[in-house]
Amino acid sequence: MRLSLTQISLTAVVALSVLFSSSTVTVSAAPAIRPVSYAGHRVVRINIQNQAQLDALTAHEESLQLDYFTHYKVVGGNVDVRIAPEHFAEFQALNLDYNVSIENLQSTIEEETQENDAYQTKFEKARKANARTPGQVFIAADWFAGYHTYADHQTWLSTQISTYPTIASSFSAGKSFQNRPQAGIKIGSGPNHVVFHGTQHAREWITTMVTEYLADQLLKGTDTRVAGYLQKYTFHIIPIMNPDGFVITQSSNRMHRKNAQVNGGCVGTDTNRNWGKGWGSPGASTNPCADDYRGPSAFSAPEALNIANYLKSLPNVALYIDIHSYSQLIMTPWGYSATPPPNYDSFLKPLAEGAANALAAVNGVQFTTGDIYNTIYPASGNSADYAYSVGVKLPLAVELRDTGRYGFNLPAAQIVPSGKEFWAALAYVLDNLGV
Ligand SMILES: [Zn+2]
Q: For the chain: N or C, fewer Cβ within 10 A?
C-alpha cells in the first residue's frame, strides 16, 4: 500500500464525521485536522541504469510507499520520488544510483509557508485599507508576487470579470465531487476556441498562478498582438480544474495530487489518468492508494468528465492546454501509445518545439518537447489524448518550472518569470496554429 499519510488523514476525517454525526453534543467548530507533516521525508532523484534496478524499484514501490514526483521510469532515465524516513534504510538497501534533491521536505514546505504568510500579511493590510472604500473588491496590484487561498482565487476571477465586462464573462465547466465550481473566465469573441486550465493536480500550485497570468495578459492587452487574438479566438480559462484537491493542499496535505473521491480507504482519483481515451492502458495504477490511481472506470471523476463535456460542447477547439508542474516539458499526444499520431512530425512536434524556443528566448529556461509516451512515460487516460481524440487541433500537456530544486514548492519569486515565458510560448502557438 502506498501513501499511508493520505490514509491517515482520511481516517481522521472519517473518524471525526462519525463521531459528530452520532453524537448529540453541539460543537461550534470541528477541531482542526492536524496537517500532514513531511518531517524527514526526502525527495531523491534515482538514475535507473539497468533493467535489474528498474525491476527492484518497481518491486519495492509499494512497501517503500514511494510517492512519484515525476513518473519517468525507464532504463537510462531519472525519476524523482518522495521517501518517508522510516523507509529510507530499505530504499538504501536496494543500492540504486540516486542523489537527494530535497533533504527534508517539511523544511521546504515551511519555507514556502513563511514566504506565503509574509505576503498574506501585506495583502491583508492592503485589503483592510481598501475596505474603507465602500463597494470596492480588493485585488492586490502585486497579485502575482504570492500564492493565494482558494477563496481569493474565486474573488480574483469575479473581479476580473467585473473589471473587463466588454471582453470577459464567467463560466463554470461543472461541479467537483465536493460540489465546488470549476470556475473560469471567458475572454474574446473569436470563432476558434482555446481552452486551458491549471491545477488538475492539486499540489502543482505554480500552474494556478501561470494560468491566471495568461488571463491577465489577455485582459490587459499590453502585448500588441492581443487585440488580434481576441478577434480570432475565444479563450476559456480555468485556473483551478481540481478545486477539492487544491483545498486539501491548503488545509491538510500540501502534497495531495488527486481529487477528493474516496476509493478503497484512500483519498483521490488521479483525474489525469481518468479520461476516456486509452483509459486502462499501461501508465496508470489500479491501486486506489497510488498517486496515479486511474479510478474504477473512465470518467468516474466528475472533474475530468465535466471538462471533457465542455470541450465537446465547443465547435472548432484549436488549442487545449493542460498545465502541470514540474519538469519543464511541452508535450503532445499520445500518452497511451508509443506510436505518435499521424500528424506528429508535420504539425504537433514543430509547434511544440517552436513554443519551447519562444519560451527559452525570454529567460533562457529550457523546456523539452515531444510526445507524452516517449518523452516522459506512458500515461493512459490523460487529458491531452482525450482532447486529440475529440478533434482538438493542438492539445498540449505542459510541465512548468522547475527541474526539481524546489519541485512543487516553487518560490513565489518565480511566478512572474514563469508567466512571462509561458506567455511567449502561448503567443507562438496562437500565431502558428494555422486557423
Ligand atoms: Zn500534474
A: N
DSSP secondary structure string for all residues of 226-266: HHHHHHHEEEEEES-S-HHHHHHHHHT-TT--S-S-EETTE
pLDDT value of residue 94: 96
Q: For the domain with range 4-107, which CATH number is right: 3.40.50.300, 3.40.190.150, 3.20.20.70, 3.30.70.340?
A: 3.30.70.340
259 CA to centre of ligand 1 in angstroms? 12
Q: What kind of architecture, by CATH, is found in domain 131-432?
A: 3-Layer(aba) Sandwich (3.40)
Domain ranges in the chain are 4-107, 131-432
- Separation of first and last alpha carbons in the chain: 48
Q: What 8-state DSSP symbol labels residue 277?
A: T
Amino acid at the residue 12: A
**In this structure, which residues have their CB less than 5 angstroms from ion ligand 1?**
201, 324
Cα–Cα dist 304/229, whole Å: 27
Residue ranges in the chain modelled with pLDDT below 50 = 1-33
Judging by DSSP bridges, how do beta strands 368-371 and 329-332 pair with one another? parallel
Ligand 1 centroid from CA 204, angstroms: 7
CA of 410 to the centre of ligand 1 (A): 14
DSSP letters along 40-96, please?
Answer: T-EEEEEE--SHHHHHHHHHHTTTTT-EESS---STT-EEEEEE-GGGHHHHHTT--
93 alpha carbon – ligand 1 mean position (Å) = 30
